[in-house]
Amino acid sequence: MTAHSAKILVATMNRDKAAEIAAVLGGSGVEIVCLADFPGAMAPEETGATLEDNALLKARAGRAATGLTALADDTGLEVDALDGAPGVFSSRFAGENATYADNCRLLAERLRGVPPAGRGARFRCVVALAFDDGSETTVDGTVAGRIIETARGQGGFGYDPLFEPDGGRLTYAEMSLEEKNRLSHRAVAVRKAAAVLAKRLQEGG
Fold it and tell me: Which residues does residue 189 pair with via DSSP β-bridges, in sequence order?
């Protein structure tokens, strides 16, 4: 990231995700834009075998499309009773064109009858930064919790209505954005990315 270009592309077409990331990055001294704001821009197909692969793939594509330093994430929900699934396939657990509701419904069905002690899960988020000078780095964040039997809450997106983080009684979907951003896996990873960005800005490069 060059000293004169303190603009960061959040390389996603998902405005819910972009808003969540922007809320965490808001105080980092950079202007934040979303890939969805660029006419004709398209997110690449997520062909990576790992979260790191997909995050880098998306960040690189965003940088190539706009010339900006790009930030992208890939997030997986790893459920103990499903041997770590859906993992890297979390966004398309119920199919390539699955909605949030489709994915939640399938997850609830797969866990029907599993007792509370067997419903452990964790969200893991990898954030990739592809700088305009060609350098790259990744950071990650993980939050453990459990999958509840019946969805609760109207906020958030994705699996938020079914995920209750350890140490609390609210699902992500029952939290305000500010509450979620204090503890979520994505917030943890994005705060690490913000520290990297701040250091680059201080160094002027």
Answer: none
